[in-house]
Amino acid sequence: MSPDENPAEPKQSKGAGKAKAAEGAAEAKALAAEVKEQEETAKQKPAARKAAAKKAPAKKAASAAEGEPKAARKPAAKKAPATKAAKGDAAADAASSAEEPEEGQNAPEKQRRRRKAAAEPLAAPGSGEEAKEAAKAKPVARRAAASAKGAPRRRVVRAKARYVRTSARKARMVCGHLRGKSVQEARAILAFTPREVARDWSKLLESAVANAESNHELLGDELIVREAYADEGPTIKRFRPRAMGRATPIRKRTSHLTITLTPPPENGSGRRKG
After folding, report:
1. Least CB-packed of 63, 108, 161, 184 within 10 Å?
2. What pLDDT sits at residue 209?
């Protein structure tokens, strides 16, 4: 290029740069003005909403003062679903739904009355004290009627031996032979039973006979073994050393023995004579 043309090019570039800078400044001012306008409008919106909210109650009061009917103020009844078979029923359903709010005002009161009626029991004849006395007298009357119908109730004598050092299983193997036997037969059975627990049963049998003779004035030889059973007691736990540093548990079982005697039904009460 010639030397005359070189100085002209920088002048043209400087003019274009100034024009671009002026355009950018103008755009920035326009954006700033738009942002300010948006902020002002955002601030004005809550104030406008509050003013509208304040005006709404006044409008409602004016409409009520004009005497508009309730049906006009209430929202329109929901339309019947389109899935109904008959279109003629839609009008009847709409009318019934429109009448429901007026009839439903007394619904809570009716429900309360029904609940109270269900909760309150039927009034018994007489006062509350008389009803309580009658309720207490019913079991007594039943027992008296049962005793009048059946035979007189027989006395029952019971004796217990607790924490006997034998297992309940071994004790049950002996007491099964005593039920329903007389005292004399039970003594004979226990005397010839080759088990160690038979001694405990014989001691308990003699204790029950002594209770019947001293406390209830019954004849011991005429009594019958009504019940004889053994319940499990607490287990005593011990340990025994074994080989290789081990320990073997030992369980020492205990049991609770019970014998029940009653007089035979033939002799009645079985009281002593003279």
Report:
1. 108
2. 95
Q: Is 158 strand, coil or helix?
A: strand
Residues with Cβ within 8 Å of residue 238, at least 6 apart in sequence = 249, 250, 252
Token code pair at residue 6: 């070189």
* Residue extents of the structural domains in the chain: 157-262
Give the tokens for residue 40.
Answer: 């002002």
* Closest to 181 (Cα-Cα) out of 230, 231, 221: 221
Q: Could you identify the residue written with the tokens 């074994």?
A: 242
CATH ID of 157-262, from 3.30.559.30, 2.60.40.10, 3.90.470.10, 1.10.10.10 = 3.90.470.10
Tokens of residue 50, six digits: 């509050």
In DSSP terms, 162 is beta-bridged to none
DSSP letter string, 201-256: HHHHHHHHHHHHHHHS-B-GGG-EEEEEEEEE-PPEEEEEE-GGG-EEEEEE--EE
How many contiguous H segments (helices) and E segments (strands) does the chain have? 8, 5
pLDDT at 27: 85
Q: How far apart are CA 24 and CA 1, in angstroms?
A: 34
Give yes or no for a contact between 160 and 257, defined as CB atoms under 8 angstroms apart.
Answer: yes
What per-residue confidence (pLDDT) applies to 35? 84
Residues 201-251 pLDDT 10s: 999 999 999 999 999 989 989 999 999 999 999 999 999 999 999 999 999
User: What's 114's DSSP letter?
Assistant: H
How far, in Å, CA of 144 to CA of 23, rounded?
119
